[in-house]
Amino acid sequence: MLYRFEDTEKCYGPHDVLRGVTWQHNPGEKVGLVGRNGAGKTTLFKLLLKEEEPDRGEIIRASGLTIGHVSQHLDAEEGMTLFDYVETAFAEVLAIEQKMRAIEHDLSDTAREDHNRLLEKYSELQHDYEHANGYTLHAEVERVLSGVGFEKSDWERPIHEFSGGQQNRAMLARVLLTKVDLLLLDEPTNHLDLDGIEFLEEFLQSFKGSFLLISHDRTFLNRTIEKIMELAHGKLIEYHGNYERFLQLRQERVEKMAVDYERQQEFIERTQEFIRRNIAGQKTKQAKSRRKMLNRLDELERPETDETFANFRLEAGPRSGAISLTVDRVTAGYEDTPIVNNLSMVIRRGERYAIMGPNGSGKSTLLKTFAGRLQPLSGTIAYGHNVHVGYYDQTLGDLDPKGSVIDEVWNLDHSQTEEQVRSYLAQFSFFDDDVFKKTRDLSGGERGRLALAKIMYAGGNLMLLDEPTNHLDVYTREALEAALERFTGALVVVSHDRYFIDRVAENILLVEDGRPLTPALSPGEGGPATRDRVRGAQSRKSATAASRKSTRRSRRSRSALQPPSANASATI
In terms of Cα–Cα distance, which of 498, 469, 503, 467 is closest to 487? Predict the structure, then answer.
């Protein structure tokens, strides 16, 4: 046993985060923790780290349990380099190395009387150093730093010079290298590009220890965990298997609960009818007996048969012409700094593209150019006949911080009544007084849902979505995907969420080193690394699609990754 929750309860005011939870995490188990935003996943981590205490019950930890986690704040000395900071994960090994260096210095004085004693001590330290893999320590630091996206030129830079996202990656690298019994990883893929995510997947697949992982990246969960704990309504529910297996088992569980609930309700109704008919008649004794039985009955709660939003819909609006967007020799960027060069392509009505590429490659810049929010440095962007653009900004900059939730939507159409707007917002989990909150007071997840509510309310037949799954829990992502699958207009998305891309996109536009590439490349185009990336995108998409084929038979048939239409091209 690593730790055990024993009848644990935790509340914040009227909100029950944990209600009588009992669960044990055993050595070697790789566990994913899922639940709605606000369900209490991060609170559970804080309880394990003793940053908070339970209101009732206890958390039993194994003697000497060591836990590694990414802190909220960087703990590094001023002037410390990136490499030196990550290397502190091996503090004990570095201490041995320092002692060895001191003895090496002393041994340079051959006249010392304690020469033999120093040699013996050095031999002992050398044995300990080798046993702790000290001779491969630097190579391991280099491997992990490269894996999470740092260039060799970054290694000797002071760590305080890096951005917050880069510092988060450095802290993740350090935690991965720390020898602990248990890793607690809260959204570890947040600041990683696709290569970094795949490195982390491989690292955790070969990891010999245990971890508890919070993630909304379902492909990542599929590839790294063997058990899922769902935190819902203050309870922890255990499912064995990866995320796909969780979806299947959870659906079976919810369906059974619904049947049990309906049967019990029918029994209660029949019993109450018997009591009403006989309480004053000849069967009074039986009626009173059944009334006592009902009073003792442990009544089941109505199960949630669907964790998604039932009416999450995206209307395409008026039908556009055959061509939605024409891109002619466009170079996109800022001022005199081009980021994406010389792109020509045509996006037709109903086509679905995902723009993929490393962090900083220009994906969001290109999408903003498509949306007309940024003028191209050269070339032209032209919309087709009757095209209406809907644009989702990942920075959520279209939300007025001084406005309320209801105003954000109501201002789009004043012909609607307050009741109609409130009913619409309820589909996005804004209930009661939530609709009067100022947007500046909303959480990241709430702001993301509100931005989606606005773009779906306004509609459009060319949707340009920049990281729309950011801040969304897995249930909301599923709802968004279902809505986009039904969408009949043209769609271009930027996303790191491979599960999302597989469900909603049919074509991939890969942007790398400022060059836009498509999977329609001929065998001779691009370098070997570029062709490998395109093939990798294709194979990942095909493999993920195959694993979900049986659960999505209602979807329209399509190949996992179709090449762009004949008129779509990438000029390099």
Answer: 503
Does one domain contain both 85 and 174?
A: yes
Report the alpha-carbon angle 544-548-549, nearest 5: 110
The tokens describing 230, both together, are: 């769902």
- Please calculate the CA angle 53-56-60 and round it to the nearest 5 degrees: 65
Q: Is 20 helix (H, G, I), strand (E, B) or coil?
A: strand
Half-sphere exposure of 100 (CA within 13 A, CB side): 17
Q: Say yes or no: 165 and 84 in one domain.
A: yes
**3-class secondary-structure state, position 414:** coil
Structural domain that includes position 95:
80-179
Is residue 84 located within the same domain as residue 175? yes
Q: Which residue, 261, 296, 331, sits at the end of a domain?
A: 296
Asked whether residue 122 is domain-assigned, the answer is: yes
Length reported for the chain: 572
Structural domain contains residue 94: yes
What's the pLDDT score for residue 242?
Answer: 94
Amino acid at 450: L
Dump pLDDT digits (tens) for 394-404. 887 788 888 89
Residue type at position 272: Q
pLDDT at 521: 36
Alpha-carbon distance 161 to 81, whole Å?
Answer: 9
Residue 98's pLDDT is what?
87
CA–CA distance, 186 with 168 (Å, rounded to integer) = 11
What are the residue ranges of helices labelled H in 279-315?
A: 284-296
Q: Where are the beta strands (DSSP E) in 408-560?
A: 462-466, 490-494, 507-512, 515-517
pLDDT at 380: 95
Answer whether residue 269 is part of any domain.
yes
Residues of the chain scoring pLDDT < 70: 110-111, 305-312, 513-572
Q: Could you tell me which of 497, 447, 506, 444 has the C-alpha nearest to residue 474?
A: 497
Do 256 and 175 lie in a common domain? no
DSSP label of 178? S
Strands 3-12 and 15-25: antiparallel
DSSP E strand stretches across 99-138: none
- Residue finishing a domain among 179, 209, 232: 179
Query: Which residue bears the tokens 């923790």?
Result: 33
The answer to whether position 95 is within a domain reads yes
Residue type, 277: R
Residue 160 shares a structural domain with residue 250: no
Written as six digits, the tokens of 142 are: 């280099």
Residue 542 in tokens: 């095909």
How many domains would you assign to the chain? 2
> Do residues 173 and 257 both lie within one domain?
no
Q: What pTM was estimated for this model as a whole?
A: 0.77
Q: How far apart are CA 344 and CA 434, in angstroms?
A: 45
What is the spatial distance between Cα 293 and Cα 297, in angstroms, rounded to a whole number?
A: 6
